[in-house]
Amino acid sequence: MWAALLLATLTAAVPAGARAGGVGRGGVGGGGEGAPPPVSAPPPATPAPATPTTPVPALARLWPVGVRPVVLRGWEPPASVYGPGHRGVDLAAAPGDPVRAVAAGRVSFAGPVGGLGVVSVELTGTGAPPLRTTYESVRASVRKGDEVAPGDVVGFLAEPGPRHCASGCLHWGLRRGESYLDPLSLLPPWLLRRGPSRLLPVPDVP
Questions:
Q1: CATH second-level architecture of 88-192?
Q2: Boundaries of each M23ase beta-sheet core domain copy (predicted)?
């Protein structure tokens, strides 16, 4: 009986933290060898950028309308996914002008969006997700699933609507997944130049 009483007295004298986790390098009951390691909170997620940083290959060899149309409004990338901006370029054109595919691909959509006719073409060999060009506002002459080659007519420019250009223009866009890109980056530098180079006379040096 005396032995049991002595054991109970010694057990009560030991701190509870020492009995549970032992006395280790972390102190009495403070995360020693018997205590689980502290769990750290995961770092906050970084929001995806509005536009990817990967370069766009210059695949096109022609403009979607005309020969060298005037760019009435350029690409204005948004600061965030839902921020304001101009997600494409507006090219001067007249109603009825043919709208052509700038590169080979497959029609992924052809139909009205918000009352305006839109044609989208997924460009061949541009990775996953593929680059996708959009043409608005057009009367489509193709259907979803059609394969198109560079220069193929995908539709005809519709009458001017309430958006973009009151006098008539094609809104040309480029996307990869949900990210908007500058469609002019599809064009090589020589096609972006406004006209042929002209040599100027060299002034006489006395």
A1: Distorted Sandwich (2.70)
A2: 85-183
pLDDT in 10s for each residue of the chain, 206 residues: 444 444 444 444 444 444 444 444 444 344 444 555 554 444 444 444 444 446 778 889 899 999 999 998 887 776 655 655 567 899 999 999 999 999 999 999 999 998 889 999 999 999 999 999 999 999 999 999 999 999 999 999 998 665 667 778 999 999 999 888 999 999 998 888 765 444 444 445 44
The structure tokens 């020492």 sit at: 18
Q: Where along the chain do its domains lie? A: 88-192
HSE-CB of 112 using CA atoms within 13 angstroms: 5
pTM of this prediction? 0.66
The full length of the chain comes to 206
Q: Residue 119 phi/psi, 5° resolution?
A: -125, 130
For residue 110, report the phi and psi dihedrals to the nearest 5 degrees.
Answer: -155, 110
Amino acid code (one letter) for 139: R
Cα(88)–Cα(150) distance, integer angstroms: 20
